[in-house]
Predict the structure.
Amino acid sequence: MSSNSKKHLGHTARKRFGQNFLHDQNVIHNIVAAINPQNGQYLLEIGPGLGALTEPVAELVDKLTVVELDRDLAERLRYHPFLNHKLTIIEQDALRFNFREYFEELDLVENQGVRVFGNLPYNISTPLMFHLFKFHDLVQDMHFMLQKEVVKRLCAAPNSKAYGRLTIMAQYYCQVMPVLEVPPSAFKPAPKVDSAVVRLVPYKQLPHPVKDIYWLNRVTTQAFNQRRKTLRNALSTLFSAEQLESLGIDLNARAENLALADYARLANWLCDNPPEVEKVEIDDLEDV
Ligand code: SAM
């Protein structure tokens, strides 16, 4: 069967659920080796699908939890002869799942957070990461397969095209490391884009804490939505030129020239001196 066939292991891939199933055993082996699951850890997989990662991980541990939205796939896992007694299956939309409630019920041992992993449906990967960042204090690490472009953005440094709001928000919460690149041929059906696995390790202590995350979201959204403009112009509804200068910002700099520490400083100033602008809802679902 060609790698673009929609049928894999008797299941027809559903595009709306971003289903591209891993089938390359080498790639699967390398991802599981990167996760390095150990018995006794709290493991949580998002989107187990047909079990490509779930099965080899379950060989190493006695139990793990999976969140799967596709009812047919959750049903298959429930009757999976080798997996079913190890799995806790949460048949829900991971985007709406209250991980905090669930994690708190686990009675996590101190200093041992949940280890989250998944080959994420690409259509929801950014909002899902934003959703998970809210629970960063309960997470030990996350390993995700994403579009390679998204991994580049997560890992980017200032002064580059890939550097943006997603970079700042991810690096605010986590240390971010690229792990491996994965070609389209590793999946069935093959996606149109290259993929890569990334490791995100939430900081125990945030290096640049802000008083209110809303203002970090707000200032980065406004700066990067107009990334070709100078910050003096892009941020003119939030700061006067003098205020920016007093905060050590070069007025001719552009969004991509500021480091996370600069954005955190701007956000904290806005928190202490809220401008008279509408406090609009920042949409995690928009492309960032
Ligand atoms: N882990 C499998 C693999 O590597 O072959 C499947 C990966 S596939 C890219 C994404 C999986 O996430 C599918 O099983 C899909 O049904 C599931 N999924 C899609 N949207 C979801 C959501 N909102 N919440 C939970 N699971 C979701």
User: Anything to note?
Assistant: Residues 184 and 192 are 7 Å apart (CA to CA).
